[in-house]
Amino acid sequence: MLAIIGGSGLTQLSCLAIERREVVRTPYGEPSGTLTFGSIGPQQVVFLARHGHGHTIPPHRVNYRANLWALVKAAGVSDIISVASVGGMRPDLHPGALVVPHQIIDYTWGRLATFFDGGDPGVVHVDFTEPYDRALRERLLCAGDAAGFKVSGSAVYAATQGPRLESAAEIERLARDGADIVGMTGMPEAVLARELKTPYAAVCVVANWAAGRGDSTSSIRFDQIEPVLHESMGKVKSVIEHLCAATV
Ligand code: HPA
Questions:
Q1: Residues 154-189: pLDDT tens digits?
Q2: Domain with 25 in it
Q3: CA separation (Å) from 234 to 34, 96, 98, 100, 238?
Q4: CA-nearest residue, atom 3 of ligand 1
Q5: CATH number of the domain that 116 lies in?
């Protein structure tokens, strides 16, 4: 079964033929909401809205451990696709662009970011050289091709703490570090999936130019984000449908 974690702009998945919903409790507390089980074409899917159904949980308050535990240990998923909105920093990653990142830099702080917090399993260090699963990224990129959309397959994702957006100088610094896109939820989600040995990849929608980027150096216009997200999330759904059709 495939898990899809929906972010801003994707609180429900209209292409999912819903079969049942389940409230899951975990040793790490409550996930962001109920798990919605169903199918997309031949593929069994479980969907979870990262920020809650009413979009009420900000990025720094998402219970990432409960979400990942619920999907992997309770629902038993084999792969996880994260859908997320990001700011674009590279000229080709303009608002509306779709991206499957290949690397992450973590700037978040104060989040509960591991299942290995001492105690029984002892001290565990997981390998995170390639933070996203290569095969699952490939499947997303093939699905993007099949859906007829340009999807960039190479981008470094900077995970920032939020909930505020960045200053222009912070974005300059992230760019100097080698980042191409910036979002607030990529970590610790990716590493928790790795700790649970579950393939994880992300498909990101560029919602806006990151602070100080693009054709304007003035402030970010929130009224311009919503229509971009709406259109591009439609494309993401199509990519996911093609991925599901190609599975099984
Ligand atoms: N910065 C951080 N996170 C984001 C942005 C941004 O500009 N846009 C969407 N998520």
A1: 999 999 999 999 999 999 999 999 999 999 999 999
A2: 2-245
A3: 23, 11, 11, 16, 6
A4: 183
A5: 3.40.50.1580
